[in-house]
Amino acid sequence: MDGKFLDNDIEKVVAADRAHVWHHLSQHKPYETSDPRVIVEGKGMRVWDQHGKEHLDGVSGGVWTVNVGYGRERIANAVRDQLIKLNYFAGSAGSVPGAMFSERLIEKMPGLTRVYHTNSGSEANEKAFKMVRQIAHKRHGGKKHKILYRERDYHGTTIACLSAGGQPERNAQYGPFTPGFVEVPHCLEYRAQWDLTGEEYGLAAANAIEEVILREGPDTVGALCLEPVTAGGGVIVPPEGYWPRVQEICRKYDILLHIDEVVCGLGRTGTWFGYQHYGIEPDFVTMAKGVASGYAAIACCVTSERVFDMFKDDATDPLNYFRDISTFGGCTAGPAAALENMNIIEEEGLLENTVKMGDYMLDQLHALKDKHEVIGDVRGKGLFLGAELVKDRSTKEPMDEKSVAAVTGDCMAQGVIIGMTNRSLPGFNNTLCYSPALIATKDDIDELITATDKALTKVFG
After folding, report:
1. CATH domain 37-66+350-460 topology
2. Percent of the chain's residues with pLDDT above 90
3. Cys staple from 429: which of 96, 172, 237, 401, with CB 3.0 to 4.6 Å?
């Protein structure tokens, strides 16, 4: 930290923040007597707060976003140069970075062909939901409009996205919700609903989706929306057999498969997209966070040509096209940043690093599990990992949320930021979450593990 932030009157900044900023996911009553945290600077894997305290960021900006790390001048310069040339034009016309980024992105997504630009993950998912509903009206008399979503998955913060959200505490107090969204069971083997393991459990969890389809009526179900690896619902990697069976079910009943890659996309799991681990062919893929590593706002709803063709037939109905606009989907900063972000991932071999460091960190978490009885399960893929805490390994009774928060709080006091499921799943906000930037080194991983080890010892003995 070079102290540049001291050039500003930081006390005035903090006072302005307390007086005027409404923070995300925050109860503000404590700020009446204490200061909110203000992050002032970032470099690589490190950030500094208003007191000059350095923190190792183990969650990539707090919400799985800064995939290539902080302080990337080449991304900032690419954005600056583009903004001077053309900062914005509505998405009804094209732009140079929009076209070039779309082409580059599609090269990484065989079987998909079209990119709809928008400005947030929630909005990208809304676009897919609207497409499904419009296809239902155009092709099925409005009947095949239902959208299935999975227990524990999260798809965004708007009312329609909450309607497709499998996290009750995030949904609480925001109903009534949009009709036509139907929940299917989760696929977390550690919390198995059936006395099965491995591939047998994976097949049972997938077959449970078919049971919901048959109950609702296949002629009423238009799409299935799933995360490739469940994120905020507890870092859940689907078991063997799950994804191929899900694909088979969707094809059997002509149901569009929508993969929400808002968290997993752009390298988080060690491939460009999480679904690519499983050999499936989605109809929609939505993405946001890591697309430009937070250097500019950008999100995308990517579709197959099959979906795209449904909106360009020769019908005389003037309402036949996709009547949608995302104002800030026309900003050129996003695709300019995204192109440079992809360049960095390729040039620095960050997918390979994610696999290597992810395997290393998973091993270290298993070693922590051997040491601490409160760790009931360790799971994850790439640099997207979780450790579920329990009061008793034999009964798997979940650790209470307050105690889990004490672990993350102690890590923060040590200067290490890790995450946790919180205020999402009644009784099951008990998973520590790790998603360091794709540039993470063994030393960074060791520091995350050491801090967790110390915190677990302090909180639980």
Report:
1. Aspartate Aminotransferase, domain 1 (3.90.1150)
2. 93
3. 401
Global pTM reads 0.96
Provide CATH 3.90.1150.10 ranges for the chain: 37-66+350-460
pLDDT of residue 317: 79
Please give the full DSSP string across 224-278, using - where no structure is assigned: EEE-SSB-TTT-BPPPTTHHHHHHHHHHHTT-EEEEE-TTTTTTTTSSSSGGGGT
Using DSSP, state whether 287 is helix, strand or coil.
Answer: strand
User: Would you state the torsion angle of the CA atoms of residues 79, 83, 86, 89, taken in this order, to the nearest 10 degrees?
Assistant: 90
SS3 157: coil
Per CATH, the number for 75-185+215-347 is: 3.40.640.10
C-beta separation of 358 from 384 below 8 A: yes
Contact yes or no for 273/261 (Cβ under 8 A): yes
pLDDT digits (tens, 9 = 90+) for 267-325: 999 999 999 999 999 999 999 999 999 999 999 999 999 999 999 876 677 888 899 99
Enter the tokens of residue 442: 């063994």
d(CA 283, CA 377): 33
Q: Which single residue is written with the structure tokens 């583009």?
A: 82
